[in-house]
Design a protein that fits this description.
heterodimer; A: mainly beta; 12 strands; B: mainly beta; 7-stranded mixed sheet
Chain lengths: 115, 111
C-alpha cells in the first residue's frame, strides 16, 4: 500500500531563514507527487506538483521541490521564508497501477515563521 | 463558480445516530474523495470514487459508507458504528492531471 511520511511535525523558523521539509513515500510504481498548503482558516491549495520530466519543480510563492527517485523523496524547499508562509504543509502521492486513483497525504508539517 | 460544496459546515450528532455529509462538485471531475482531518494525523482517506457507481475503501473506512449515484455528488454517511466520529471532514475531487480541489469541510461533533 502507498504511504507518505513527513519527518517534521512542527518547524519554527525566523523570517529569511531557509526551509526544507522532508517527504518520503513508499510505492513501487509510477507516482505523481504533490505539496499542498493550508493557511490558517483556509482551504487546502496546491503548492506544486511533479508528474514527469525535470525532477526539480517550481511552485507558487517561491517554493520548489526535488523528486529523488532513488530515495523515494520529494522534499519541499524555499530559500527565504516570510511570516506569511506560516501554514500547514502536506505532501501527497497519487500512485498508478494497483492503487490507481488513490491520493494519499502525509500527516502534515506545521510551519511557524517568527517575524 | 466552479468548485466543491460541502454542507453543512457544522453538524452535531447524538450518540447512536447516523448522519450524512453532503459533497457536490460542478467541475466535471470523475474522481472524488473523502478525508478525515484530525490534529497531528494529517488527512486520512476514508473512501474514494473514480467513476459513477463505483467506490473504494480508503485507510479508515470502518463506520462510514458512501454512494456515487451521480457524477456531481458523493455523500458520506457516518454511521453509529464509527467509534470516534468527532472530526473535520474534507471532500475533494481530482482533475485529469491529478490536482485535487477541496471543499471547505464539515466539522462533526458528537454530543
Amino acid at each position: 500500500a502507498q504511504s507518505v511520511s513527513q519527518h517534521n511535525h512542527h518547524v519554527i523558523l525566523s523570517e529569511a531563514a531557509s526551509l526544507e521539509l522532508g517527504c518520503n513515500y513508499s510505492y513501487g510504481g509510477t507516482v505523481n507527487l504533490f505539496w499542498y498548503v493550508q493557511y490558517p482558516g483556509q482551504h487546502l491549495q496546491l503548492l506544486l506538483k511533479y508528474f514527469s520530466g525535470d525532477p526539480l519543480v517550481k511552485g507558487i510563492k517561491g517554493f520548489e521541490a526535488e523528486f529523488i527517485k532513488s530515495k523515494f523523496s520529494f522534499n519541499l524547499r524555499k530559500p527565504s521564508v516570510q511570516w506569511s508562509d506560516t501554514a500547514e504543509y502536506f505532501c501527497a502521492v497519487n500512485g498508478y497501477g494497483g492503487s490507481q486513483g488513490n491520493l494519499i497525504f502525509g500527516k502534515g508539517t506545521k510551519l511557524s515563521v517568527k517575524p | 463558480d466552479g468548485g466543491i460544496t460541502q454542507s453543512p459546515k457544522y453538524l452535531f450528532r447524538k450518540e447512536g445516530q447516523n448522519v450524512t455529509l453532503s459533497c457536490e462538485q460542478n467541475l466535471n471531475h470523475d474522481a472524488m474523495y473523502w478525508y478525515r482531518q484530525d490534529p497531528g494525523q494529517g488527512l486520512r482517506l476514508i473512501y474514494y470514487s473514480q467513476i459513477v457507481n463505483d467506490f473504494q475503501k480508503g485507510d479508515i473506512a470502518e463506520g462510514y459508507s458512501v454512494s456515487r449515484e451521480k457524477k456531481e455528488s458523493f455523500p458520506l454517511t457516518v454511521t453509529s458504528a464509527q467509534k470516534n466520529p468527532t472530526a473535520f471532514y474534507l471532500c475533494a475531487s481530482r482533475d485529469w492531471q491529478g490536482k485535487a480541489f477541496f471543499g471547505q469541510g464539515t466539522r462533526l461533533t458528537v454530543v
